[in-house]
Amino acid sequence: MPTSRADRRVLPLWLHQAAEYIVGLLLAYMALHVSGQMRIALLAAAGTMVAIAVITDGPVGALRLLGPRAHQWADVALVVGLAVSPLAVFGHLDTLAIIVAEAAAVVLLRMATLTRYRPGVPAAGGGLMMRTVKLAAGTAARGPASRGPVNRGPASRGPASRGRTARTLGFLAGRAQREALRQAPRADRAVANGARHLGTLLGRRRPPPPRPR
């Protein structure tokens, strides 16, 4: 069964924002160690990346001006900008700057493809489990009172109770049968040994034959 796109998005939005802070600061640090006009392009990309994380309406956003969907499109635009920045910048191109720009574009693109921008999109393989856990937790938190009065009289022990009793008896009968089959060889040996022992005793107690006169 093929995996859907939603199932492959395992990165929550808050972790995506935190990663953008870190990658943006690293990008700014690397921009200080390159030469040419690519330094300005890398600094602009680093500032844009951090700004997107700051203004996004997410768990670690500060201003909450940008929705998650708009954040996704901003990430795509930033990936494209980083990828084509060596072509757009004229003049002397630093090889290290080109490598840094392309690596940052790849990292941001990978983050974008793994991020759940909308909270309603479940993680891979975890949606059903999380819903089950939440349902069980809610039921336990409400306690027995939320499930209404429990009738423990004879009426509540109707067909369902008889069905459980029948299943229990069937289980016990099957277990007894398996135990009997397992013990059958031992019982046969015990019976045979007892018969031989009884024959020996009877042989010893048999009166001697009368002597001929």
How would a crystallographer describe the biggest sheet? 2 strands, parallel
Describe the strand arrangement of the main beta sheet, using strand numbers: 1-2
The end-to-end distance, rounded to whole angstroms, is 101 Å
Number of helices: 7
Overall residue-averaged pLDDT value: 69
Low-confidence stretches: 121-137, 143-156
Gross geometry: elongated
Give the oligomer, counting copies of the same chain as homo and different chains as hetero: single chain
Element pattern in H and E: HEHHHHEHH
List how many beta strands DSSP finds.
2
Q: Tell me the Rg in angstroms.
A: 40 Å
Structural class: mainly alpha
Estimate percent helicity: 55-70%
Strand content: under 5%
Task: Compose a concise summary of this entry.
The protein is an all-alpha fold. Helices cover 68% and strands 2% of the residues. The chain has a domain at 5-116.
